[in-house]
Structure formats: C-alpha cells, structure tokens
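Hello forum,

I keep getting stuck at the same step: I have a sequence, I want structure tokens, and every attempt I make locally crashes halfway through. Rather than fight my setup again tonight, could one of you with a working pipeline run this one for me? It's a single chain of 113 residues.
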Amino acid sequence: MIKSELIQKLAEHDPHLFRQDFEKIVDAILGTIREGLARGDRVELRGFGTFTLRKHAARIGCNPRTKDPVSVSEKLVPAFKAAKEMHLRLNPTALRHQNRTASKSSIAADIVR
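Reply #2:
Ran it on my machine without issues. Output:
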C-alpha cells in the first residue's frame, strides 16, 4: 500500500483529525525508521516487525548486457522481519501447524522422562 492510501484509510477511521495530521504521523513513523537505520540501529515496531541492516560483501558481478565481469562494492541493505503476531495474522494455518508441532514435542518429552 502506498503512503497516500495509508493516510486515506487512517483518515476514514478517525473523523476528528485532518488528513494533514495523519500525514505528519505517517511521516514521523517512517522518518524514525529511516533515521534509525541510517545510524545503524535496529528498529522494532512491537507486533509488526523489525527493520535491520544487512551487509552484502564485495563481489565480482556480471554486466548482463556485455557479460563482462564487474566489481560490486560492499553495501548495506535494509531488511524486514515480521513479528510473530504479524506472521500468524498473515498465515493463520501456520498457527495450527505450530500447535501440532508443539504437541508432538511435548509428547516426545514425556516419553524421554
């Protein structure tokens, strides 16, 4: 979803605030994430997920047009990992699989005792 769609949805839920207020809120959240990553920090939004930086080592790549080798320098790229709550909300069948796995491991633990 793009920023303007997000702001529109937020504005529909709360008629007491103006669209400009929601724009400031969304910009503040995204700015905080951007600034944290720029400092090299890990940014966590509880129940949503974690933004981190991953280092990609320098390597020799290939120019797809000429097939010539190209030196690609080391770089940092942003990465996102969904929180457990978000993952389960997006994948409700994973919860059933998790419960089955947990019950099997508890049965195995009882047998070992």
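The two ends are 51 Å apart (CA to CA). If your local run keeps crashing, start a new thread with the error log.
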